[in-house]
Amino acid sequence: MNPSSIPVLETSDSLPFDLMRVPGLGHFFRWRYARPVLQAPLLVLSLVMILHGLFGPTLAPKNLATTLTWLHFRGMLVLVLLCAGNFFCLACPFMLVRQLARRFRRPRFTWPRPLRNKWLSVGLFVLILFTYELFDLWSSPWWTAWLIVAYFLSVLVVDGFFKHASFCKFVCPIGQFNFVASALSPFEVKVREQDVCTRCRTKDCIRGRREPVSDLVTIRGCELALFQPRKIGNMDCTFCLDCVHACPHDNIGILSRLPANELMVDSIRSGIGYFSRRKDLAALAIVFTFGALLNAFGMVSPVYAVETWLGRMLHVNHEAPVLGVIFTFFLIVEPVLLLGLAAWLTRRWARSPRALLPLVVRYTYGLVPLGFGMWLAHYCFHFLTGLYTVIPVTQNAIASLGRPFLGEPHWTLTGLPANVVQVIEIGFLVLGFAGSLAVTYGLAEDDSPDRPLRAFLPWAAVCLILWFASLWLMFQPMEMRATLMNG
Amino acid sequence: MSHAGMNALFAEAKETEPGRYQAHVQFQMAGDWVILLHVTLPSGERLERQIDVKGVRPN
User: Fold this and answer.
1) Cα separation of A361 and A279, whole Å?
2) Which residues of B touch A412 (CB under 8 A)?
């Protein structure tokens, strides 16, 4: 990496803003029980959603499971990632249940070496996107409730057998989404002064603190194998703050930084290695980016015409094989063609010394801002246009218990007007496009210092194609159908 | 719509002849719609009925 191409964030004159220095907030985050206090309300909410999903109204807009999961959780998740950082992983209710379970059963195994990568979680990420379309999860409170139950069970099984945070690091699809998206976040858990870490002999941030006599761990070190002094960026960081609690020098903060800058840096990262050598991480970035378009494609009218046409071509009347073809096209064929061609052109024009696949891996991270822009536009559309729907749905849920102390449901409460939200959506897409151009240019400068523009142009073209596709999708007539064909 | 949070439409049904009520709604997008009827009977009893309108096509 050419150091001159990395924007300098920290100088002695401009120290980054530290959330841990905010009065009250820093005190709270340093408190040992900060995480459980944040997790507990979400755990209660999850249980309410499961119960309402299984036993409440079968109509999705009247059920807390579907309304909270597909509108409010997803919308708030992407907005918090954009405006702050991976704070949803900090407040993850699944981890609270895991902690409680580990009081009774300690895990004995280490996560299998062949699975210490993102391939499994990439597969699960695709599987969730696939089942979302196949079972129309957004219209089914019952399926949504079972998805939450399945998540709890998976956490208990995986982290019941395997030590550390195996589920978060190697399995959790939501976590992987958060890890990738948090590359665009303005905050990062990071050491304040490297010198302090250099002098530190105990390395409690990774080892944890132990009782002197019994050697029992009293405060955990990082369960995701991120050694703070060598940690770069938010990848694999759940913001659990274990390192903050373990550091005996109070040298870890939640520091401001330039969003997306970490995508341009290719130094060795603790617990991760080099981005440019991680094909599994690049695959995750591809699913994140192209999956954003695919997920949005599933809610516009043309998808039904495509599915009907494919059904006729394949002589099938079930949705699964048709969806399989669409997923293969969006997540394999399209990326291979676009990224392969861009990498080939980069080699030809800029005479990049890298081989084709390493070039694809390197530049794929540049598409993450575009993908995040699309996720933001999509999820915020549902969140903002249905912002207030949680009120009548909650009123209705309480009224159904026979005690309508919140009053009769105000079904007229919906959300912001669609035309207002559309402007916000365009803003997100522009932001994502600009971010991707900036990152790919930074990568081009680093990769081909003599011919950065030649290296950049093919990737700028890919960004432009994806951006136009995003805009086209956004202006398509929406069509939400819970059933298709005979499926 | 069958998707949580999608825009809801509201209309009040007017009695056009004894026992016959009519309301006008214009579906704003294609897809699966659900009509929820909230009825208050002369006795004060309240009823709710659901009518599924699947596969509304764009104009």
Assistant:
1) 6
2) 8, 10
